[in-house]
Amino acid sequence: xxxxxxxxxxxxxxxxxxxxxxxxxxxxxxxxxxxxxxxxxxxxxxxxxxxxxxxxxxxxxxxxxxxxxxxxxxxxxxxxxxxxxxxxxxxxxxxxxxxxxxxxxxxxxxxxxxxxxxxxxxxxxxxxxxxxxxxxxxxxxxxxxxxxxxxxxxxxxxxxxxxxxxxxxxxxxxxxxxxxxxxxxxxxxxxxxxxxxxxxxxxxxxxxxxxxxxxxxxxxxxxxxxxxxxxxxxxxxxxxxxxxxxxxxxxxxxxxxxxxxxxxxxxxxxxxxxxxxxxxxxxxxxxxxxxxxxxxxxxxxxxxxxxxxxxxxxxxxxxxxxxxxxxxxxxxxxxxxxxxxxxxxxxxxxxxxxxxxxxxxxxxxxxxxxxxxxxxxxxxxxx
Amino acid sequence: xxxxxxxxxxxxxxxxxxxxxxxxxxxxxxxxxxxxxxxxxxxxxxxxxxxxxxxxxxxxxxxxxxxxxxxxxxxxxxxxxxxxxxxxxxxxxxxxxxxxxxxxxxxxxxxxxxxxxxxxxxxxxxxxxxxxxxxxxxxxxxxxxxxxxxxxxxxxxxxxxxxxxxxxxxxxxxxxxxxxxxxxxxxxxxxxxxxxxxxxxxxxxxxxxxxxxxxxxxxxxxxxxxxxxxxxxxxxxxxxxxxxxxxxxxxxxxxxxxxxxxxxxxxxxxxxxxxxxxxxxxxxxxxxxxxxxxxxxxxxxxxxxxxxxxxxxxxxxx
Lengths: 383, 318
Ligand SMILES: [Zn+2]
Description:
The complex is a heterodimer. By secondary structure, chain A is mainly alpha-helical.
């Protein structure tokens, strides 16, 4: 019997790709949506149910919340399926052979540390075991296999043990990296298909279900996008920046401070959370291009000398700080390509650009300019 | 030296001294996929979006126009003249001697000398060691930029990396993150990199720097005792922080780790590394502002900017 799929994009899975889907594939897609892991499926139904989820999501755009929900479902599904299979192979018992994971993964370079020939010094083994709560580092993967997990910031390179090009991983980390690499391929897949070609209204039904999953898994506060900017509630440092800044602190004031402040104040004023992306909060890029950027550009123009006159590339840098990567053209689907810089704390601002900080009476109560703004802008509505 | 080159000197340089051979093969082989930028009058590289189809065309361009500065992208494009169809980019690290956060020379801001240039060189070699040892990267190329060094990595596995992963590699090689406390003493891996960066800083530390990082005066003073410093250095090589912790106490130690992290993060120009569409000074071209050559370095150990990067017209200025 063929081993069950752990990679819906492998060659063997892709044979089942088509534009018409049977009842069974729909039923299985719904099970996956509900988070059920069923083994013993026919690989055909299995692969098709993955494609169905992703094609439905692509109807709403590949940067949509539906797309992210579908991707997350695939990621979790792949990971729990691997765990289930490992349990069948004796994971957690003394008879477990670490190589079983190596054979399970498709299109991913993973070795046991014995296979990779990596030898750890005894003291390092001890430290690492302690740091990983007793989980041994059983596996080694070439560090470039980890790029998807680094991109999504599930892993941090400086927390890994790197040697001779290999990153050493616990079994949990190895599975996470693998699942993340599969999740990333979901993006490519959604970009390459067009759900509308299928012409099956059941896809719309699945897309709606994905939207519900997306909304229920989002923290409540993040659903609260901000409202139009009101300058009268800005703190003194932001007002000073809007008035234009001299050459010494120009870059910091405009590219870091003003860009982060205005974007968060307008788009995600309440506790956006780590790894937030602009696309999580808005469906329309014009909020950025028409409400945020013009204010930044106008302030840049008021600097002396005007910021973009001698540093035209700062425009790209602003986009980078908004999380779109170093790009000239802003597209919602690129949101998340770079980190969306959060508003620096007052202390940091005083250090980087002391001239901007002349506190008024409200400043005493806050440590961050954004809080200054949200407290005043939304004060009445809270009550 | 370090005086601006006149238009006549630029012309003389490109007509008499510049050789196509001095442009590294890794650029010539991919010339038509790179975007070229030129600065004709010393106003910054505002002539961009240039595609140069052949080495001969580059030769003609440089000899005829003798630009103030010439640049080529680290990225490859299907259409470099439009910066479209991005195919990948070298991974680049840039250390500029004038921007080093700590230097043992007495250069004023913006200036460089033999001492800080040597410090920049030593540093970029340490970065290269980490890329070789921990990342197993092999295609490492060094360029003298005129005021510092570029390290350009051309291994296949780095070419398609996006900005976030480049930033992650940068943090790793620079020591831009304080390691997890329980991993600080690991013999290999990232904590070793952090310790080596710390080791290099020890000889450059002074009271002012330590105080600026919030290390209490008494502890800072105790650390700067030459005997203590030597002990700390020896222990760091062994992977131990015993004397350092004892001298600084726990609060001072935490402040010190943070200070090291901050200085580490300022050593390399992060924007150069994360920018996947960057243009960099073209090796072989003239850095007219300081009248030095940008040189592709074949033997890094033996390279001396004051021997190998001084154009003839400067030697003859007397
Ligand atoms: Zn110097």
